[in-house]
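Morning F.,

Quick status update on the modeling queue. The single chain you submitted on Monday has been processed. Sequence for confirmation:
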Amino acid sequence: MTTAAQREGAIEADPDLYDASDSSLGDEVSKYTASLTSSIEAYPVENGRRYHAFKDGSYIMPNDENELDRLDLAHQMIRICMGNKLYYAPLSDKLKKVLDVGTGTGIWAIEFGDEFPSAEIIGTDLSAIQPSWVPPNVKFEIDDAEEPWTYRHKFDFVHVRHLVAAIGDWPKLVAQCFENTTPGGWAEFQDFDCTYYSEDSSLKDDHHIQKWITTFLQACHGFGRDPSPGSKLKGYIEDAGFENIQHWKYRLPIGPWAKDKHLKTLGAWNLVQIEQGLEGFTLRLFTQHLGWRAEEVQVLLANVRKDLRDPKIHAQFD
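Structure tokens below.
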């Protein structure tokens, strides 16, 4: 994931770890201000999973309760990764306008709104899945970030996070962020490169997890969405015209196999959010765009879960 400082040297595996299968993990508000239409909330259901209705088919992930739980897990994982921070930009407490693009459950916008009570935070998403009770300075809007932005004002801070496999034209999106950021304002982008690898060659080509992620990456590209934008963000940001660019990268272990305590915790959270989202990552993409039967997908995922829980496979991604 591109967003934080990269440690030098390979991650050392914990030699005392034998069984990762039982790892454990650890207001006054105002009413929701968005006006929702019945068409936006008429969510289609495929293979037992619920998907967004606005711009139906443009996003591979579901928007049901299982996925909302995963998004909140991923949010907490990234906070751990970032030293419990919500952002890295050197923001002033005089912030007035903030935009959270692809807000998901709205958890980042809500926590940011609590930290900056005098700022107005707008969170946008394709789905109206955010809570009904939020801080008075936070509101949510249904919007497609890839369409032309029509805001009447610019933003002091634009936050873009976790849009992997969701965007068809990243340079256009980053350019719109630049055009809608006030002079002297900040934009922050956080995203993944979903290429799995191991530094000790413990992840093999014949592992089910490697077969799955390889097929997933190829299918995303075929769908017209980039599954690995994180490694390209710096270039997009430079091309858009941003200045004073700072770029960091974290390695995210999959599972609690690392010896380092921080990386072990981070890997445990990552494992849980991947397991929670595995079906959602795969079902629509593999059945609609690769022609797999749902039963074939479930057989593959059962084997992937076994690999995910194997402490001898030291998989990770950035």
